[in-house]
Structures are given as C-alpha cells and as structure tokens.
Amino acid sequence: MANKMRRTKAEVLEACKGCLGILEDARKQLGVSRRTFYNYRQRWPEVQQVIEDEQERGLDFAESKLLHLVKGGDFRAIAFYLERKGRHRGWGAQQQLQLTGATVQPPVICFEDTAAAPADAAEGSEDGQQ
Length: 130
What we know:
Layout: H1 9-16, H2 23-30, H3 34-43, H4 45-71, H5 75-85, H6 118-126
Helix pairs in contact: 1-2, 1-4, 3-4, 4-5
C-alpha cells in the first residue's frame, strides 16, 4: 500500500484559493486523488465555501473579459451580451408557448386482426366492410 500524505486544512484552503473554482487545478497542486479531494470538501465546510467563492471570482473574471470585448466593439461579444442580459428589453431569441382552451382527443389505436386469412382481409377492404 502506498504511503499516503495527509494534507492540512490550511494546505487545502491555500490550494483552492486562486483556482477560480477549477477543482482539478487545486487537486493537482495538492497531489491527491479526486476522491481524497472530495473528502476534504465534505470534512471541512470552509473548503467548500472557498471553492464557491472562487467559482464566483471565475465568473466575475470571465464577465469582465466579455465586457472588455463589448467595450472594444466586438460584434459577437455584443450580440452574446444582449442575448443574455438584454432579454427584458426584447433582445435575444424568445420562445412563446400559447395554450388554448381546445380539448385534444387522445389518439385511437386500431389493431388489425392477424388471425384473418389474407384473402378475407383483401375482400373486406375492397367494399369497405370487414
């Protein structure tokens, strides 16, 4: 069995800071398995809180980069921003579902009589009777 190195809460917290919520980066920095890292998260609620804070920092970072592109006149960035943030002003694809009071009848399923001889079935279908 391999000699396992135990990490302290302080080491785990430090590894999580600056990872922008990318857990794989923090895990690799610690040199632990995925399972061990998730055990740390469950054992120490502070670790989970730092991870959530870092995920928010990651979103803030990405949003600031997007806004930088918008300010620079990047058309795709502008369109993306308006589709996501400007819906209340009518920007973006809108989906509408219209419900009416009409009642829809359930489908009727008919089964053919497979026991009838093929000749009998052909006769019945010609004159509209079975």
